[in-house]
Amino acid sequence: MKQSANGLLSRDSTKTVLASLISILIGLVVGSVIILLVGLADPDLSLSSAWEGIRLVFGGLLSTGRDAAGALTFGFNPTNVGNMLFRATPLILTGLSVAVAFKTGLFNIGAPGQYLMGTAASLMLALGIPSETVPTGLIWCIAFLGGILAGAIWGCIPGLVKALLNINEVLACIMTNWIAANLVTWMFDGSDFRNLVENTKSGYIYKTSYNGVETAKLGLDKLFPNSQVNGGIVIAIVMAILVYILMTKTTLGYELKACGSNRHAARYAGIRDKRNIVLSMAIAGGLSGAAAALYYLSGNTEFFWSTYQTLPAIGFNGIPVALLAASNPIGVVFTGCFMSMLDIVGLQLTNLTAYNEYITDVIIATIVYLSAFSLVIRMLLSGRKKHKTAVSVETASAAGPVPAEAAPPAEAGGPETDGTEEKGGEAT
């Protein structure tokens, strides 16, 4: 039993999960310390208010408000959970977008631009096709697929310049982000899709419910009443499973990861590296486009068309989601929900205490910073295990000679193997 537990702890996947959990825990503790310091420094606040803020940081999703006496109450809050799932949907898909690129050795910082192109395509199709003559369900499908296609095409651009001209994909993605922002602004600026019915919202595009096009609820509105949740979260989870199957169970996924590990070795092995680089960025762009399509085809969100002022944060937020999940498609589902939960926590802090939601931004920033050092955390965990192994060997040696069959195996990376066999296996 003890050996199986030690074997589980020695696995790389276990160390990755532990590193992510440690990053999350440290981020939550840092947020709590900030709340405590603000509570002590501000004369209008007190330790009791700081304690309330800390409780909301760890359990804000389950907060149900305040009772008659003014005390915080906690319990299952279906509205908060439903809104968390709705906000998690685009985060999961943009996280998958970044994760797919990471797996193939690319850094897709172009998710915001791909997201914007998916937004424009899905909204124009959903609002432009007359629902009087075409069934709304068919319009929804066309708009959803159009958003995916637009994102994929936009993702191909940095993939092409990387494959053909060897231009760094980060630089190409930054350029395509701002081109997309201004292009989408120009397209909507002269369109008939601006909300002219409500005079105060002329800078916004009509919600797709204006045309009768909405994502099906699939009964989730009954499970989570008074929330924005719909079937988009189910589609996002299904797409995460499909990406996992693609990357781990198919020849294409192996080729994509091989190109990411060593492009030149993959080419020597007969893998078409240029095609796979472009294909990887197209898949990543399609996932970002799907994120935008599901978000705006929900029928309860509206798009501010003056996008030249800023890039959508949802595209950049996919980066910490992928980092925290170590680019595992299934892990992205959970980290996307966690990041969405922090958004809900921020709203609860603003509504129920004297603190504001920007504290959760500090928590997210801390988690992201630590996620970037997740390899260091895994090395520390591995070092601790090696130290324990060394101590046990010394103890056994002091007790008497160690039988050959009981001797511990040489560690990968030790003086006998120097880790070459393991590294060679990964490169292959």
SS strand fraction: under 5%
CATH topology of one domain: ABC transporter involved in vitamin B12 uptake, BtuC
> Helical region count?
17
Instruction: Please give the CATH class of one domain.
Output: Mainly Alpha
What does this structure look like?
The chain has 428 residues and is mainly alpha-helical. Among the domains are: 79-327, ABC transporter involved in vitamin B12 uptake, BtuC (Orthogonal Bundle), CATH 1.10.3470; 386-396 and 406-427, no CATH class. It contains 17 helices and four strands. Strand 1 (63-66) and strand 2 (72-74) form a beta hairpin. The radius of gyration is 25 Å and the shape is globular. 45% of the residues are buried.
What descriptors fit this protein?
single chain, 428 residues, mainly alpha, globular
Short description:
This protein has 17 helices and four strands. The chain is mainly alpha-helical. The two termini are 34 Å apart.
Write the layout of secondary structure elements.
Elements lengths: L1 H9 L1 H30 L5 H13 L3 E4 L5 E3 L3 H26 L7 H18 L7 H30 L3 H21 L14 E2 L14 H4 L8 H18 L1 H11 L1 H6 L4 H24 L6 E2 L8 H12 L4 H24 L5 H15 L1 H26 L20 H8 L1
Antiparallel strand pairs: 1-2, 3-4
